[in-house]
Amino acid sequence: MTSKLQKAVGLHFDHAAATYDRHAAIQWFVARRLLWEIEQQPTEQQPAPRRILEIGCGTGLLTEQLRERFPGAQVHALDLSPAMVAVARRRWRGAARVRWHVADIRRFQPAGRFDLIVSSCALHWVVPLIPALRRLARWLAPGGRFHAAIMLRGTLTELHAARRRVAPDKAPLRSLPSFAAVLSAVRAAGFTTVVARRHKALKSYPSAQALLRMLHEQGLTGGAIAGRGRLLTRGELDRLQADYDQRYPTAKGVKATYRVAYLCARKG
Q: 10 Å Cβ neighbour count for 61?
């Protein structure tokens, strides 16, 4: 993660920690699907994990599910945002077998290796991805597994298209990774036996304004974190909302697309 993006991600999620969960329906969905993917992998030759590392725990949406699913394991939950970890600590106050860590993945120094490393809706913020994945590979015990859900290019495609129509000279400066790029990074990092699936999810929001408010209150808008160059003016923002409402209606408001890669890999 570049230092500029690292700082932006941490600050935006700090500011959004108090409002993040009320808008986290898609994150809940992805976390549950990721846990299902973990449970589908054969375990006949492998004992249950004793040490688990969660990368990007946020407010603990997945953390408690991991603790319940693996009652014999100690879960180490790591996030860049102190405010997010504080919310998670309060939510699961007194939870046994959970250790919370506020740290950047690039600087975290774990004591010992892990049998299972998990990350949901977090690693798409890590740029470049390959060095970070190499660190994760080093942290895995022999035979350990790495499972991740990563948001892909094509997520919020309707919003990006509306922005291009309204302000073609203010295109985002970067985008989410493609499925092929994620697979290439996982293999380049030294993981083997990669099982990967792509999933498309559609979610409805009452209006484009509600969608934009949700993104803002999750800390996903503005500057480096949104991959933006020049910000939209008030008039451009109004036209974007009108364009979105007109072009992407559903029975419940407007639609938004999310594309996710679910990965299972082993240490080479």
A: 20
Report the sign of the C-alpha dihedral through residues 229, 5, 79, 154, in that order. Answer: positive
In degrees, rounded to 5, the angle at the alpha carbon of residue 83 between the alpha carbons of residues 227 and 124 is 35
For 17-56, how does the pLDDT look when each residue is reduced to its tens digit (9 = 90+)? 566 667 778 899 999 999 999 988 766 566 789 999 999 9
Residue 110 in contact with residue 136, Cβ under 8 Å? no
Which one-letter amino acid corresponds to residue 238?
Answer: D
Q: For the chain, which residues make up each domain, given as ranges? A: 3-154+174-202+258-267
| Short-list 198, 197, 180, 240, CA closest to 215 | 240
Alpha helices in 21-176 (DSSP H): 25-40, 63-69, 82-91, 129-139, 157-166
For the whole model, what pTM was predicted?
Answer: 0.89
At the topology level, CATH places domain 3-154+174-202+258-267 in: Rossmann fold (3.40.50)
Report pLDDT digits (tens) over 90-113.
887 766 789 999 999 989 999 999
